[in-house]
Amino acid sequence: MKYDYTVDKDFSSKLKINIDVTVAMKCQYVGADVLDLAETMVISSDGLIYEPVAFELSPQQRVWQRTLQLIQSRLQEEHALQDVLFKSAFKGAPTALPPREDTILWPPDACRIHGYLYVNKVAGNFHITVGKAIPHPRGHAHLAALVSHDSYNFSHRIDHLSFGEIIPGIINPLDGTEKIASDYNHMFQYFITVVPTKLDTYKISADTHQYSVTERERAINHAAGSHGVSGIFMKYDISSLMVTVTEQHMPLWKFLIRLCGIIGGIFSTTGMLHALVGFLFDIVCCRFKLGSYKPKSDALLDGHLNSHSALITENSKH
């Protein structure tokens, strides 16, 4: 995989946020919307669906979530696995929570907020908090006064959160996240940096976005000095750099040249080793044991002795 970095010059288009979050509160008690730095408010009714569900997952859904969490843990340890996901991305792969295979026997106690929103390509804050959002001349407000504090419960599960075009098979950092609130007044914060990404592989070509995230959570206790608003806040910022991910393969001619070089090297090395082993075997096992190998001094001495013995034999005959 090849990564190229350029300046993102597209600042006028809209950014799509794909959301699938389940909150452990009834749908009439929560509201979701986006407020960006340009003071532009995006109401969730434009593309989000509020669906009453049970917060507890079915056995099949729990297996799906644990598998997703296991993949996330491996991705944090082995960053090179992201290249494998880029290469293997294909349309039709499941990216959402599978439907429930059983029937719940109790009234729905949670709200699944899923769908999409189009926002400006500036920093913003997507949040889910108590009460429905209403427009306000100085920003926006939520009708939280009509909801009792005893019904607050911002335990939540993020089944999917992505920016830009949805690419099946790609695992996002917050997919499969589950948080349980220890107190009814609890704030969950996610600080997200979004990086525009252009993906060009042999299986897919798309313009999407990657992101990194930092999490923070705390209980709201005004008496102890911990101020804030209970809810789930996802504060995102858009990077000015764009990453182009390209899948590259070696050309056939270069592969053939390297293959010929490897084969030639193997033959040359094998021939050299064969000659060396044969030479050592001939010296150690044959010449020393059979006595055929002698130093030059010994050979000359043997020659003189043989000549002298011949002369002695002739003289003795005379």
Can you describe what's shown?
With 318 residues, the protein is an alpha+beta fold. Helix content is 28%, strand content 36%. The protein is built from 4 helices and 15 strands. The chain has helices spanning 59-77, 81-88, 252-290, 296-317, and strands spanning 2-7, 14-23, 30-36, 41-43, 48-53, 110-120, 124-130, 133-136, 139-142, 156-164, 177-179, 186-200, 205-219, 231-238, 241-246. The strands form 2 sheets. Strands 1, 2, 3, 4, 5, 6, 7, 10, 11, 12, 13, 14 and 15 form a 13-stranded mixed beta sheet that branches. Strands 8-9 form a two-stranded antiparallel ribbon. The protein is elongated.
Record field, number of beta strands: 15
Question: Sheet bearing the most strands, described?
Answer: 13 strands, mixed
Number of helices: 4
Radius of gyration: 38 Å
What's the pLDDT, averaged over the residues? 79
Order of helices and strands: EEEEEHHEEEEEEEEEEHH
Report the span from N to C terminus. Answer: 97 Å
Shape: elongated
Query: Helical proportion?
Result: 25-40%
- Tell me the strand percentage band: 35-45%
Uncertain runs are: 307-318
Question: What structural class is derived from the secondary structure elements?
Answer: alpha+beta
